[in-house]
Amino acid sequence: MTLRLFDTHAHLNVDAFAEGLDETVSRARDAGVEAIMVIGIDVATSRRACDLAAEYPGFLYAAVGIQPNSAAEADVGDFAIIEELAGYPGVRAIGETGLDCYWDDTPIELQHVYFDRHMQLCRDTSLPMVIHMRDSGDLIVEQLKRQSSVPPGIMHSFTGDWECAKTCLDLGLHISFAGMVTFKKSDDLRDVARQVPADRLLVETDSPYLSPEPLRGKRPNEPARVEHTLRCLAKLRGVSAESLAETTTENARRLFQLP
């Protein structure tokens, strides 16, 4: 049986998909993917995400933002452009934003500033946020707790421990898992995924990165492969793939305010 799938995080707006995008979309549809959120990391990719949402209406949706590793290179007026793009048809989320302590592309102080600006844009637009985390779970939680209100959103490609996940859940966020949860050595992450409440669980590919088992290392990753991550989660949670696909897809549609 074909599953109902929603890939909540894919970078179909990067060079890896500059050619053959129609075929990538076709393979996703054939695999049961009924919608994909295309994520911006800077002004150029956010614009491209908007263009793709217009080109594939009702199937591709856009998130617009400046990813923490892109913030240092952003021009003074770039965030104003993101604010403008947030009003475009097909834009259903803000981001990706968040914090990254693995790379040193952007000073952490500037990352905090951009994270705050994205959260305010979420409040202004009533759109959910997409949060990037890499070696930064504790800092993200601290910054979220400093907010007067935490917008709805997603901890994308979650890699933290259960304490971090539980705090994010308590703050109203969803938890999304990418291909890493399928990797052989990811037992700790699978333990976290087993505990996330079903109504807060999402799946993603983070295409073109993080291909899931049994396709690990084969790039580019693509939305059709989200099925492998979904089936892994269903197995470890002891539920059918069909029911979990239905649940995660409805979770995504509800969060992104889609029909």
UniProtKB/TrEMBL annotation:
Keyword Transcription: no
Gene3D superfamilies: Metal-dependent hydrolases
Keywords: Hydrolase, Metal-binding
Pfam families: TatD_DNase
Domain of life: Bacteria
Any coiled-coil regions, as ranges: none
Listed CDD domains: TatD_DNAse (cd01310)
GO molecular function, one term: hydrolase activity
EC number, UniProt record: 3.1.21.-
Positions of transmembrane segments: none
Similarity section: Belongs to the metallo-dependent hydrolases superfamily. TatD-type hydrolase family.
Listed name of the protein: Deoxyribonuclease YcfH
Organism: Stieleria magnilauensis
